[in-house]
Amino acid sequence: MGFYIHVQETPNPAAVKFISQYTVKTEGKSQYESIDDAVANPLAQQLFGLEGVKQLFFFDNYITVTRTDDADWGPLGEEVLDLLQGALPSHDPNYADPTTGPALEPEDDSPEVRQISEILDRAIRPYLAADGGGIRVERREGNTVYVRYEGACGTCPSSIGGTLAAIQNVLCDELGEEIEVIETGGAGEAYGYW
Hints:
By secondary structure, the protein is α+β, with helices and mostly antiparallel strands. Helix content is 30%, strand content 27%. It has five helices and eight strands. The strands form two sheets. A five-stranded antiparallel sheet has the order 1-2-5-4-3.
């Protein structure tokens, strides 16, 4: 017997969020840009087996699927739903990703980055998660903060413009200093917003 999966469009026309009653990742989050990244996650490997899947983001009880430019959401969305209906009940949300590779490196653990991360936890990340994505603080060098978008935010045309400016404004207000925020993952490049 099937179960309900809520399909939610995101501000990114190439990404859709699939929300389930099942937890897909117990702790942390996972972003995969290829089947090779997903060695510890059989469900992600199965999703990459569908033609048109470009990127996956696992967090809490949802999976954001980003499609390739030539894929059509109609057929691809149905294939993703069918696969999730069959695979989610037996998916192990306690899987552990390898800890190497640029997409998997932990955030800088300096006090400055922890403070920035706490501000983002409170003021930014809930909104990005609602849109099927996230943000990782890579480092701070002087008044420059380097971040990388995750999930739907990583290829969203609005991420590099309005969203990045909002993050910069929040950090300037909260920290009481001029901060420049730079996105390092190439968000928006596919749409010419860089």
